[in-house]
Design a protein that fits this description.
It is a single chain. By secondary structure, this protein is an alpha/beta fold. It folds into 2 domains: 203 residues, Spore Coat Polysaccharide Biosynthesis Protein SpsA, Chain A, CATH 3.90.550.10; 34 residues, no CATH class. Helix content is 26%, strand content 21%.
Length: 260
């Protein structure tokens, strides 16, 4: 796969990595963690495949680097080529992720845990919060990241902020098909027969931005947990690239939009 140098997106790594940046009235050290393994199955090498003229991971790195509240942007990968391209785009790759943490079934928490442990042991670096950004969801904005950081920094009682949007269809009306072919309610609630306007507002976390305090990650042994606040995203499609059809759809939207 070919790659070209994009001078506009070169970023010098901050020499004072332990300098905190002030957001609102709360001082936090914040890192972005971008997971990008090399062994993607649905779309081969998708993290560095060219999407609308740029490596897919470019969009997520560029977005993180544009947020002044983020002290460090770190790509965790098991792949040397992805690491090289990520560095050229301005991210840090302080380690190569172990192969056992880059399997199809590897959940998010061990990946984040490995990164935090490496920074603690090897650099004596201890961030206060982690912004977790999936490169397969490139259609986010730096304003959404900054908005999530602002919500977390303004309320010390929060553990996490997640981007969320209304569900397209009420889960109260969904059914489960039994073995005999009959339908039963998916959820047994008083809302099963309610009109749409009488239903509570139901949100889904779309995965575009997740930010958590490291204290919460340690406590719950999860990337998200505890008291979670939503950053409301009402418009725009949800794009998570897992198949070639997802890729084609995302590329169509990218070429159509001037925002990314």
């Amino acid at each position: 796969m070919g790659f070209f140098w994009i001078s506009d997106y070169q970023k010098a790594i901050d020499n004072s990595l332990n300098t905190c940046r002030i957001v609102g009235d709360y001082k936090m050290k914040i890192i972005a963690i971008i997971p990008a393994r090399g062994g993607s199955k649905g779309v081969s090498r998708k993290n560095i495949r060219l999407m609308a003229g740029y490596p897919l991971i470019h969009y997520t790195i560029k977005c993180a680097l544009a947020v002044s509240s983020i002290n460090r942007t770190i790509v965790t990968t098991d792949d040397e080529e992805i690491a090289k391209i990520s560095r050229q785009l301005g991210a840090e790759t302080p380690f190569i992720r172990p192969a056992e943490l880059a399997c199809d079934e590897t959940p998010d928490y061990p990946v984040v845990r490995h990164c935090l442990d490496f920074l603690s042991v090897e650099e004596n670096y201890h961030p206060d919060a982690v912004v977790f950004l999936r490169p397969t969801m490139p259609m986010r904005t730096s304003d959404e990241i900054q908005g999530s950081i602002q919500i977390l920094s303004d309320d010390a009682s929060l553990d996490c902020v997640r981007t969320a949007r209304p569900v397209p269809y009420p889960p109260f009306w969904m059914k489960v098909i039994k073995k005999d072919g009959t339908l039963v309610n998916f959820l047994d609630t008083p809302y099963n027969l309610s009109r749409r306007q009488d239903l509570p507002e139901i949100m889904m976390c779309d995965g575009y931005v997740d930010i958590s305090r490291v204290s919460a990650i340690n406590k719950y042994e999860a990337v998200v947990g505890g008291r979670i606040h939503a950053l409301y995203r009402e418009t725009g499609p949800i794009v998570d690239i897992d198949t070639q059809d997802d890729w084609n759809y995302c590329e169509y939207l990218m070429r159509k939009s001037n925002e990314f």
